[in-house]
Amino acid sequence: MFHGKRVVVVMPAYNAARTLERTVREIPLDLVDEIVVTDDASSDDTVAEARRLGLRPLVHPENRGYGGNQKTCYAEALRRGADVVVMLHPDYQYTPKLLPSMIGLLTDGPFDVVLGSRILGGSALAGGMPRYKYVANRLLTAIQNLLAGAKLSEYHTGYRAFKSEVLEALPLLENSDDFVFDNQMLAQILFQGFRIGEISCPAAYFEEASSIDFRRSLRYGLGVLGVSVQHFLQRIGVARFAIFDPAGKRLEYGDAR
Known about the structure:
Elements: E1 7-13, H1 20-25, E2 34-39, H2 46-52, E3 58-59, H3 65-79, E4 84-87, H4 99-107, E5 113-117, H5 131-148, E6 160-163, H6 164-169, H7 181-191, E7 196-200, H8 214-235
Helix pairs in contact: 5-8, 7-8
């Protein structure tokens, strides 16, 4: 518990056997109540490694995609009674050492969502981010801010923390199971008026860190633009889309407490 709030870290895993231990060892267990690892049909020893570390991974029998993996993560965190949920990639691209600050900004601060931004600190390129990805990140973010009427430093970080009320309110099951899920989720958060805070986050790029190739990056970028246009049209009342419907499909979960 942190200030009376139950904190669950969720880790959407795919072929993360080589980096999982390093990531888990740096999670501050005095603040975090549970760690949920969801394995998306990895072809390596991710599941065995998680069990060796004392975790009980949830395993998809077939690959459901990055977005599908997150849906499982968030539903399980809510089932376990989380008040605060932090998504941390198990590939050690984002440092777990920022968890106390991110959790504190939700439990004691004014925010409903906190993002770990690679752009705020100005060290993305120094951390190894490919230049084409950096340029695409800045360009897409500028367009997204314009269409959303927002001022975020980036929309493409995978380091995110949420109050449980946010995850319960969003129609997440209307979203894609692919990488564009992240941007659909942020668009939903902005549309519903939740308060977003950002914290500077260094990110490391190395052989074991997960990444998508140029072709998938291009498809992702086009998907992001599509989501941004949908958000803009919904916001000005010209069109309606299922991902912004308050009555849309939400996560289903029981109560494990």
